[in-house]
Amino acid sequence: MRALGKWALLAMFGVWVMAAWSQAPIKTAGQAREQGVLPVTLEISSSAGGFGQGRATRLTLRRSGEGYRSETTVVEIRRSDTPPHDVLPPETTEPVMGWMNVDKVRRLIEVMRLPPTTTVDASEMAPLDVWQADIDALWRPEKWAAVEEAHLAAQRYRERLRDPATLGMVLRDAASQFAVDLEVGVGVKAIFDDGSQLGASTAGHMYRMLPWRNADGAFSYSTNFADALLEILPADAVNRDALVAQVDADKRQHLLKLGLMEINSNVDAIAQAPTAYLRLRQDYHLRAISIDDRASKEALMRDPRARGPQRLRVQLRRKGADRPVIAYVELNLRDGDLATPDDIERIERRFQRVASDGVLKSLPPRVILTFGYRYLTQDTYIKRDEALVRRQFVLQMAKGTRWRLDASSAAVSDAFVVSQGPLQWMLLGDGRTVRWKSSHGKPDAPGEWRCANVPLGSEMPDDDDPNLMFPNVCFGEMFDAEGRRIE
């Protein structure tokens, strides 16, 4: 692949910055949190692009008397017309000056401070009876009539979709889809006279650029951010059309197909593994169900058409649990049932171990904990080698702490990882718990040290590699079964 020149790198980085510079929440202080206080400067960047090309509208508003003086520029990034089509230096137009009403700025700032709306209001797009007619045309439970459990599940899903709240969640999932080949976004940064800042940004493009991140960094699915932006952005601004509500029959069908994708996968999986589904459904809530029969890499190299044994992938959450604990599991299948029914007992033991853990019980009740069975990671289902993970744990504990653990002992051989966001806990088989490491932050306290991430695949990352990818910070804190720290 031809090496990129410095302008190509700068330009491609520029498109990314235009779309994402305000994607992270901006920490605020002082007047930025006070209701009714207006910024001295408001900066808006609205961009779209990809593959080294892009266009952005930059709007800067500066407080002046009873309103705001505005300055609008357009930044263009493009490739040359002749081979090798290098990315050219960015071009910026002459600024266009104007005037903005203070009420429009006030409205945008008020919206940025609002708490998040967690679902889409379907009635804003089309009447609810129109949505139900669209669903009837798209969702056909009779497709799964040959398998009773799948047919019943499909019928249950159809009834749930009559609830506007459920429909709103389906459309929320659809609106969150994005195009991986594009950088599209609107970012807003408000600067106040005490230097504090407030930020918000869009994070999607399927419907009115939902969701958007509010000033606290939380995703919101209300259209009020788009409405407020439309009051301020110039008529020819990049992404203005995307902020306008335009939902015809084709768009509705597209959104429904995207939103129902997971549900469709769930019912297809139930049709292929009905007995396994019934076993798991007795004690667990199930979601993100799918069937995988891909062969190993080695088998595919020998025969690209090779298939492996059927495996059920599913997220499990125990019914009636006091805390949200989610297991990401992969279970071997045979004739529609679990190949090893004892897998359920092993998974349940892990749920019970997490629920009874002295340290984890002390966490706020709304904290979500996750673990994998067969060491699958959240969302990606990248397989981890359990023995390799435990080996790394033993080595890192020996390197940074006084603990010398025996990898062959029951305490280690029965251990498993529990994730609390970026933080990794190791629950040992003897009841002790270790606050192991985090993928965020840097060592900044005595006893902390730089270390490698949890292994993915079958390779052990080198803790001492100066160019270590995905560096973690290790803690190595040991706690007893009651949650007391062991010095």
What would you say this structure looks like, in words?
The chain folds into 4 domains: 6-117 and 179-243, no CATH class; 122-177 and 248-261, no CATH class; 273-373, no CATH class; 386-486, no CATH class. 31% of the residues lie in helices and 26% in strands. It has 15 helices and 20 strands. Strands 10, 11, 12, 13, 14, 15, 16, 17, 18, 19 and 20 form an 11-stranded mixed sheet that branches. Strand 6 and strand 7 form a beta hairpin. It is globular, with a radius of gyration of 26 Å.
Annotation keywords:
single chain; 487 residues; alpha+beta; 9-stranded antiparallel beta sheet; 15 helices; disordered N terminus; signal
List the helices and strands and how they pair.
Layout: H1 6-20, E1 41-50, E2 53-64, E3 67-77, E4 91-92, E5 96-101, H2 102-113, H3 128-138, H4 148-160, H5 164-175, E6 183-191, E7 197-202, E8 212-213, E9 219-220, H6 224-232, H7 240-243, H8 249-259, H9 261-272, H10 274-281, E10 284-294, H11 297-302, E11 307-318, E12 325-334, E13 337-338, H12 342-356, H13 358-361, E14 369-373, H14 386-400, H15 410-413, E15 416-420, E16 423-427, E17 433-438, E18 449-451, E19 472-479, E20 485-486
Parallel strand pairs: 12-14
Antiparallel strand pairs: 1-2, 1-6, 2-3, 3-4, 3-5, 6-7, 7-8, 8-9, 10-11, 11-12, 12-13, 14-15, 15-16, 16-17, 17-19, 18-19, 19-20
Helix pairs in contact: 2-6, 3-8, 4-9, 5-8, 9-10
